[in-house]
């Protein structure tokens, strides 16, 4: 970019990643430039719902907040667009006649039509790795809580049943012994996906002494060092004691974890999903849990979010449910803005495109 050129910048934040943090990071990124920043917030209504009723004219854009018209009204003279969950549709990109770069401080930037940006030669930057530590931490936490029956044991104590059972004339240990959990050393931890998050989960599971099995047909062989690469999903599902999903929310992955695969799990095995709800057959999982075909599950994501109150999952005692919080961290706003700044700064300060998501695709065009 030419530092002699004045840049018009549009920054769009929300309740999770504050506009002020994005603006501060953008100013650091554009040190030495003459620029003018316009900014506004979008309302985070249902950012993770995939069944929205409003038609924004671009089916490739999902998990967004706000409406494209809010961007279209402001983007005509914008050179640099910075967003978190705002929907950057094909129409938004077409209206941005002067757009040179788009930055989104998410790892899976499904609210951006990256193909449309690439067609226009607009460089796109994301924030890969933003959620690696919190998501991998929760995955391992889920495994420990499931394997040691932590939730049920907690409820047992809080309900007074422990005191009542032990203070009988003849103590009753019947419920107490049901909390006896597994030992994790040498158990088989099955991972579907060995991206940044999957790799970190593998490291943490291995540190607990677990044997890590991985299915990922797209990962380089070097990434599997120390782990067992499985040739198929059926092989992984039938062999694992704990299974965790870590694949991106691509259309090709919808329904990837099928009724047939879930039926291959051991009756003593546990299932964890912190990726996306549509990746699994939720009805098949509910059936497996209701009929004790598997030992239990922990879910942070669901096909419909928020989870409907009529969902059978809410009535089960062998599943842990959390409200799509895996990627949340106390410094989410500042950390996300700073990571995007790190990804975009080389381009603006030295013209380097090493951290640009679509640079190679643009060059091939």
From TrEMBL:
The keyword NAD applies. It comes from the Bacteria. SUPFAM superfamilies: Formate/glycerate dehydrogenase catalytic domain-like, NAD(P)-binding Rossmann-fold domains. InterPro entries: D-iso_2-hydroxyacid_DH_PdxB, D-isomer_DH_CS, D-isomer_DH_NAD-bd, NAD(P)-bd_dom_sf. Residues 141-326 form the D-isomer specific 2-hydroxyacid dehydrogenase NAD-binding domain. Keywords: NAD, Oxidoreductase. One of its GO terms (molecular function) is NAD binding. Belongs to the D-isomer specific 2-hydroxyacid dehydrogenase family. PANTHER family: D-ISOMER SPECIFIC 2-HYDROXYACID DEHYDROGENASE CATALYTIC DOMAIN-CONTAINING PROTEIN-RELATED, D-ISOMER SPECIFIC 2-HYDROXYACID DEHYDROGENASE FAMILY PROTEIN (AFU_ORTHOLOGUE AFUA_1G13630). This is D-3-phosphoglycerate dehydrogenase. It comes from Dendrosporobacter quercicolus. The lineage of its organism: Bacteria, Bacillati, Bacillota, Negativicutes, Selenomonadales.
């Amino acid at each position: 970019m030419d530092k002699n050129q004045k840049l018009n910048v549009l920054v769009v934040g929300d309740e999770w990643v504050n506009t002020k943090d994005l603006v501060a990071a953008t100013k650091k990124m554009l040190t030495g430039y003459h620029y003018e920043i316009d900014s506004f917030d979008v309302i985070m209504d249902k950012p993770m719902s995939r069944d929205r009723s409003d038609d924004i004219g671009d089916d490739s854009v999902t998990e967004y907040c706000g409406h494209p018209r809010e961007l279209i009204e402001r983007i005509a003279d914008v050179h640099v667009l910075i967003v978190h969950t705002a929907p950057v549709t094909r129409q938004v990109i077409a209206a941005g006649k002067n757009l040179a770069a788009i930055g989104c401080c998410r790892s899976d930037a499904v609210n951006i039509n990256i193909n449309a940006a690439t067609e226009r030669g607009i460089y796109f930057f994301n924030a890969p790795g933003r959620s690696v530590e919190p998501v991998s931490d929760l995955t391992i936490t889920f495994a420990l809580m499931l394997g040691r029956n932590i939730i049920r044991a907690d409820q047992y104590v809080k309900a007074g049943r422990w005191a009542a059972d032990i203070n009988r004339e003849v103590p009753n240990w019947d419920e107490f012994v049901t909390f006896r959990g597994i030992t994790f050393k040498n158990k088989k931890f099955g991972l579907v996906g060995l991206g940044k998050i999957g790799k970190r989960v593998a490291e943490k599971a291995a540190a607990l002494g677990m044997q890590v099995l991985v299915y990922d047909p797209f990962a380089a062989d070097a990434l599997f060092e120390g782990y067992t690469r499985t040739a198929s999903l059926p092989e992984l599902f039938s062999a694992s004691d704990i299974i965790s999903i870590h694949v991106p929310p691509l259309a090709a992955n919808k329904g990837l974890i099928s009724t047939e695969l879930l039926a291959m799990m051991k009756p003593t095995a546990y299932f964890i999903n912190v990726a996306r709800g549509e990746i699994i057959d939720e009805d098949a999982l509910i059936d497996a849990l209701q009929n004790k075909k598997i030992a239990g599950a922990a879910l942070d994501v669901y096909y419909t979010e928020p989870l409907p109150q009529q969902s059978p999952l809410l009535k089960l005692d062998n599943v842990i449910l959390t409200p799509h919080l895996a990627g949340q961290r106390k410094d989410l706003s500042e950390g996300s803005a700073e990571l995007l700044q790190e990804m975009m700064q080389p381009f603006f300060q030295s013209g380097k495109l090493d951290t640009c998501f679509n640079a190679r695709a643009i060059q091939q065009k």
